[in-house]
Every structure is written in C-alpha cells, then in structure tokens.
C-alpha cells in the first residue's frame, strides 16, 4: 500500500509519481487526438425566409406558369400584399389578356394581339401550341383556340375549320390525297410530281398553299373545292373571298398572290404578284354550298428568267377576330397576303419606293374610367434599314377600319394633334445589328385617352398608325419590319405566337364612395348625435376595385 503524507495544504505526491502521471497523461493525449470525435449536429428544420417565400409563391401558382395566381380580384390583391410579388387574377384571364395585381394595389394588364393561351380539358390555362398531333383520323393542333382538323390522307378533304358564329368550311383537293408528311404545325401532301399541298395550323386558323417545286411541274391552273355550311362564300372584284353569316363577316382571304424562292436577307419574298382566281358554285343543299376555286399559275413568275423555284400560290383564310393589323403604301393596290408582317418606311428591296404605313388595333381590355400609370406597346422587330437609332412615329387612329379592305386610297387617318402621339427610336434586327427582339414604345397618354373615352375628354380605341417622319420618307435606313398578329411557322423570324404584338398597361381605379361615418357609443337625442365617451371612434367602410389598402 502506498501511503502519502498529508499537510495543511493537501496531499504531497512523491516526485517519481508526478513524473509517472504526467507521462501517462501525455500518452493518453496522443492517442485521443488521433481518434475523430463524432459531434451530433441537430439540423435546423426551419426554412430560410427566401426558401419560405419561394415555397409560398409555388403553392399559389395553380397553373405552373411561374406566376402565382388566385381565382378572383380580392384574393389576388390580398395574396400579392402577403407575398410581396405580383399575383394574377384568373377571373380576368382570356385567350389574349391576363391581369396581375401588384403588392401596392395597382394592376398590370398584358393585352396580346393574338391568342397566346387556351384552356385544356381540365379547365386550366396553357400556352397555345399549334404542333399537329393525331386526332380523329387526321391531325389537329395540340392547343389551339380554333377548331381545325387536317386530314390524314385517303380522302380528298384536307382541312376543316369552324368559323365564328357557328358556320364551318371544308377544303378539298380534286383527288384522294396521300398520307401527309407532318412536321411541327405543317402537313405536306405530295399531290403530283413536283407539286405539294402545304397545310399549316396557325394562330388564326389554317394556312393553305400550293407549292410548285420545278419548272416541269407547272400547269396552267389548280382547282380546290370549298364547302361551306352555315355561312355564305362570295368573291369581291379584287379577287378576295369573304365568308359571311348574315350581315356579319366570319372570315376572309387577302388578295390572292404568289411568290417564288427569291428571298431577301430577312426571309421575305422579293417578288410578290397577284393571282387570278375564279369561284363557281357546283352544288347547294340547305345551308351547305360547294364551290370550285380555280387559281391561275402566274405567268409573270413562270417566264421570269430569274425565277427561283418553288413558286408558292397562297389562298390563306383568316377568321374574323377582334384584333387586326396591316400595312399600305401609295402605288400598292393589293391587300398584303403575307399576313405575318407589318412594314413601316421605305423598303430597300422593293421596287416601289413609297414609304409604308403600318396599322394595328387590338382590344385593350377593361380600362374604361381607370387611371393609366404606364402603357407600353411591344413589337417584335425582325428587320431594319440601319443599326443606328431611327425615329418612328406612333399616332392614334380616327374611326373604324378593316384590314381586309384597307389600301392606300382608303387608309385610316392618324391624328397628330391630340397631344397623345408618341415615338420610339430603338432599332434592332438589321444586318449586323442587335439580334431580332421586342422593342417598346410609350403609349401612356394615348391609352389614358382610350380609358377616358369620347364622353370624358378622350377618344375611342381604333388602334395606331406607325410611320417614319415625313422628312425621312425616302430614306431606306428608316425601314422597319415587325411580326404581326398572325405568325407563319415557315418564316425565319415570325414563326411563333410568342412574337405577336402586345400592350402592357399599369393602372389603378378610384375606390368606391365610402359609407357614412359612424360614431361608437352614440345615439341620437333631440335631433342631435350624442356619444357617451370622451374619446369617440369614428369609422367608415369602402371597397376598392384592385383590393388596395385605403386610408380614410
């Protein structure tokens, strides 16, 4: 047994024992420092504020389009304030318009010139998609606002479309068609050696073209059959076709034209010529009428020594819609059949050196009586005469007009003295310039005048005129080309519905009249209002169109 002396200061250890314990401790430290020690870390189950915000936004996005939404205006306004982001009011969604409510209570409306959304079988909004998919023995667009069916071959019918008002039309070839080759929104039938029938589903219905691929395939004329049910089909002196339902027009073609394979640097045909067309009724029963449309192959192109095949003959049909756009210039008397484009200024590649005027009109939504805080027009520009900034004027139009009949001699008039005209100078899309893109112009004053209306110091929404300044009418560097309301999947730039023109409007509305102020703990005595408290509370209530916060 080891005995240790004890003193008043504690136990006295022998020197040898101190050395032994010190060495033992050193060895233990060397051993333990080489052994990793596992430390239990308790994860924080709470998400970060940013993660919580993202989760809340995703939870409020019912259609998975990246924008939170709510079924009505009030819930959208409340949700916008809570989340601190813009929230869509789905009750105001249409095929061309959507409305977002900002956290501050203002609204932002996107008004597109052509359909960009449709509802699916579940009743939810989805982006338009004109890609053809197999359906009912033929092909139909995957998600389209129009009822279009393109045949799968084996019969003579190649396109069927419902028109506004309940009527319909069916287009047929004289012979049974082979099965088409299908790519994207287009079905191509090889109807003869060197001749193709090209049928495309578009944003406004269906595009039908006859393509002559070689000189050997040229024939004097082509005949297609048109059956209408519930609508009348007539031809104008200018060669246009009009589908009418009583006094209302349900659809139309432009002046029928043709072009060859010569394209300019922006993908547009260089030479466009009119096509002679005749319409002859072949049968009629009840509301159904059959007619033959005969199209003469234009000899101007066939005999041109510089012709480049294919030659395309274009009897496109466009249903009547609320939006419209076109362009005109002095010396051009045909309606432009290349409906994917709107031209402004003098076009360098055209023999006609007069400046073009562009026109656009589309519904601006429910803006009557509202305060317009900001309004912008967005145009997809795919061609320019210069990379430098160039001014383009934008004026409000006076009175109604019709894209199907407008030429230079009857073009609508752009007002220049209302104080609401605007302009833009941004320029993209030229050879070697910034890439094709949307450019924007400020239309705040003009849209406010539309919102005020004729009875309140404003004027009606008849659309806009776009033109270069008069001093620059002969300057080709002011040329601009924009995609129109009707895209063409065969064009190099205006090939998608995402490039149609649109307006963005930021607005607010005055709250409704507040209720009569009331006082708590009060009663009326001898015709006077009395309260029993020395610190009365006055209160009232009111509603606001955008569910904004209100201070009384």
- Report the principal-axis shape: globular
Based on secondary structure, the structural category is mainly beta
Spatial separation of the terminal alpha carbons:
94 Å
Percentage of residues in helical conformation: under 10%
Instruction: Compute the number of helices.
Output: 5
Percent of residues in β-strands:
35-45%
Structure description:
- This protein has 552 residues and is mainly beta.
- 10% of the residues lie in helices and 37% in strands.
- It has 5 helices and 42 strands.
- Strands 3, 4, 5, 6, 29, 31, 35, 37 and 38 form a 9-stranded mixed sheet that branches. It has an 8-stranded antiparallel sheet with strand order 9-10-11-12-13-18-25-24, with no helix packed on it.
- The chain is globular and about 100 Å long.
- The N and C termini lie far apart (94 Å).
- Residues 1-35 have low confidence and may be disordered.
């Amino acid at each position: 047994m080891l005995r240790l002396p004890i003193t008043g200061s504690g136990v006295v250890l022998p020197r040898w024992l101190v050395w032994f314990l010190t060495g033992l401790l050193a060895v233990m430290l060397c051993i333990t420092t080489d052994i990793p020690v596992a430390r239990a870390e308790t994860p924080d189950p709470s998400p970060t504020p940013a993660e919580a915000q993202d989760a809340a936004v995703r939870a409020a996005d019912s259609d998975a389009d990246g924008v939170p939404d709510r079924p009505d205006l009030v819930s959208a306004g409340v949700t916008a304030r809570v989340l601190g982001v813009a929230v869509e009011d789905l009750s105001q969604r249409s095929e061309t318009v959507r409305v977002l409510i900002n956290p501050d209570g203002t609204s932002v409306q996107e008004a597109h010139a052509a359909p960009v959304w449709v509802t699916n079988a579940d009743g939810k909004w989805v982006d338009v998609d004109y890609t053809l998919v197999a359906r009912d023995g033929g092909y139909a667009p995957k998600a389209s606002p129009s009822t279009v069916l393109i045949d799968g071959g084996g019969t003579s019918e190649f396109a069927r479309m419902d028109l506004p008002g309940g009527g319909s039309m069916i287009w047929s070839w004289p012979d049974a068609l082979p099965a088409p080759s299908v790519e994207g929104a287009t079905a191509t039938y090889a109807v003869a050696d060197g001749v193709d029938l090209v049928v495309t589903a578009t944003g406004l219905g269906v595009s039908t073209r006859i393509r002559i691929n070689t000189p050997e395939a040229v024939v004097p004329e082509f005949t297609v059959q048109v059956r209408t049910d519930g609508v009348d089909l007539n031809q104008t002196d200018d060669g246009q076709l009009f589908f009418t339902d009583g006094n209302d027009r349900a659809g139309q073609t432009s002046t029928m034209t043709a072009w060859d394979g010569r394209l300019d640097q922006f993908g547009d045909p260089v030479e466009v010529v009119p096509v002679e067309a005749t319409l002859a009724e072949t049968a009629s029963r009840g509301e159904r009428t059959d007619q033959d449309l005969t199209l003469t192959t234009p000899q101007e192109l066939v005999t041109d020594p510089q012709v480049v095949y294919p030659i395309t003959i274009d009897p496109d049909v466009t249903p009547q819609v609320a939006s419209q756009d076109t362009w005109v210039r002095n010396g051009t008397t045909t309606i432009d059949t290349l409906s994917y484009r709107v031209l402004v200024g003098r076009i360098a590649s055209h023999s006609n050196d007069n400046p073009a005027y562009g026109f656009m009109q589309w519904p601006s939504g429910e803006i009557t009586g509202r305060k317009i805080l900001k309004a912008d027009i967005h145009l997809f520009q795919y061609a320019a005469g210069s990379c430098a900034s160039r001014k383009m004027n934008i004026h409000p139009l006076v009175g109604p007009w019709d894209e199907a009949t407008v030429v230079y001699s009857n073009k609508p008039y752009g007002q220049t003295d209302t104080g609401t005209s605007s302009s833009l100078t941004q320029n993209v899309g030229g050879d070697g310039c910034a890439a094709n893109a949307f450019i924007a112009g400020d239309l705040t004053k003009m849209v406010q005048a539309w919102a005020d209306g004729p009875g309140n110091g404003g004027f009606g929404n008849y659309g806009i005129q776009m033109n270069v300044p008069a001093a620059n009418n002969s300057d080709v560097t002011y040329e601009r080309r924009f995609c129109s309301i009707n895209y063409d999947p065969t064009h190099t730039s205006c090939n998608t519905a995402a490039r149609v023109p649109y307006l963005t409007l930021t607005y607010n509305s005055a709250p409704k009249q507040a209720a009569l102020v009331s006082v708590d703990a009060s009663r009326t005595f001898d015709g006077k209002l009395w309260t029993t408290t020395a610190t009365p509370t006055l209160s009232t209530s009111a509603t606001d169109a955008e569910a904004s916060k209100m201070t009384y």
